[in-house]
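Could you please consider the sequence and fold appended to this message?
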Amino acid sequence: MVEFGEQLRIAREKKGMTQQSLADQLFVSRQSVSRWERGERYPDLVTTKNLSRILDVSLDTLLSGKEMVKVAERNPVVENKAVNNMVIALYAVVVISFFIKIAERAMIFFIQSFKSLSESRPMNYMQGSVDERIVILRYIVYVIVFSFALYHAIKDTLTPKKIGVMMMSYFITLFLLDGIIVIDYFGSFYASMIDGATDSMRWLRKVVVELMRATVPGGIGALASYFFFIRENNRKVWVNMFTVISIVGIIGNMLNTYHDISKARMFFPAASMVTTTARETAADFVLGIAVFVLIVYQSNVLYRKRLTAMKLQEKDKN
């Protein structure tokens, strides 16, 4: 069976068209047509239909079901330009937001360092709670991970495997680093139970919220990312997992937001402090939603593309 690139070249030459003239009619670059003919990339389904119309050949002649499977795995998951621009914007918001969070904490650290020097007292470079240091490390990893995705989204090379690498890195970071926080909280819960302290239920609530918000979604998400995006297993169960963990993660973020605002009201009677805390936690909540929206949307788009490819492949066999 002749490959798509060769079929395209033959059909184009029969019509007496150059790569440039064909590219002009499709509103793409000549390099894009050249890559298609060399088999390095495939056009999306809409462009393939336009090729079929312009070159007067059937869609089945140009693209077999087997090659449609290659299209789903080699092409970017999001091929619509307008939607891809929205995805780029979301990734940019995520990267910038996490970068700002790192900058804020770095500024606080330098202010504390300056105060320590001006007061002639030693500076504890490891000061801060365990979860605070882990949060900073998590933000640094997230900036790297989502910058990788942003770069490839801009270059229009965000293929399923690259999304899989990005999402696995995100979920593994969530699982491992927040797992440390859960262990720390559980240790405090166990100690308070042994000592008969009154705050044992508070520590138990922290454990449950952190499990819902990060640890459980992180573990399940890493597993689903590996099998769905990297191993190309197109079972609906993986897509459903992404949806469920996104819902669980959003609920966990809502509980965490409510807790932070309640704590601010308790310890900071001033309305300005409560407003500032509410604004920051709301920003974290929106940021979490943006991440989960990207995960659910991209997994569903890829699932539908793979289904279309498999149907065409079955049609070829019959």
About this structure: Residues 64 and 313 are 7 Å apart (CA to CA). Residues 271-317 form the longest helix (47 residues).
